[in-house]
Write a structure and sequence with these properties.
By secondary structure, this protein is mainly beta. It has 3 helices and 14 strands. It starts with a helix and ends with a strand.
């Protein structure tokens, strides 16, 4: 065995290690670790009144956003603070990090995906800076909203309070 063979055989942790294997149909899994709050408690009327759709809010505990289901990236905001997804089950989802963060013009946001990318549940899609958001004077609460809510009879938040990434948080039927 040569010296480089030792490195080849060493198991390395990859992005794939975070991928969720067994996901339920029509379910949305936590894209961010933190505290789940009802949509009505988000401090922005566009979200709290359900104008963009039903869902929930998350007060992030860390600056990482993961794919909440298998699907396709249909939009990454020019200002990098939000990602739109289309799930393989037809769910259209907006994940909007922070409130009024559009005015940060991308500072503190590092999307790792682009429009058209296919994503797997659990795949890291964005790094963001909680401290940059707070330093800019904005709240970090992130909206997780089903933008095609009218296509469904029921959109239920399954869990409130502390959540780890990839815990089931919303069921759509």
């Amino acid at each position: 065995m040569g010296i480089f063979d030792r490195f080849k055989s060493k198991p390395q942790q990859t992005q794939q290690d975070n991928i969720a294997e067994n996901t339920e149909k029509n379910c949305i899994y936590a894209p961010i670790e933190g505290e789940i709050i009802p949509l009505a408690e988000i401090a922005d009327g566009v979200f709290s009144e359900g104008i963009l759709g039903n869902g929930c809010g998350i007060k992030p505990a860390e600056g990482k956003m993961y794919a909440p289901f298998d699907g396709e990236v249909i939009q990454v905001a020019d200002t990098k603070h939000a990602i739109g997804l289309l799930g393989k089950d037809g769910i259209e989802l907006l994940i909007h990090v922070g409130m009024d963060t559009v005015s940060m013009n991308g500072k503190g946001f590092s999307p790792l995906v682009k429009t058209g990318d296919k994503v797997k549940c659990g795949q890291l899609m964005m790094d963001f800076s909680i401290s940059d958001i707070k330093d800019a004077g904005f709240v970090t609460t992130t909206a997780v909203v089903v933008t095609n809510s009218d296509n469904y009879e029921k959109i239920e938040t399954e869990k409130l309070g502390q959540v780890q990434k990839l815990e089931k948080i919303i069921k759509v039927s």
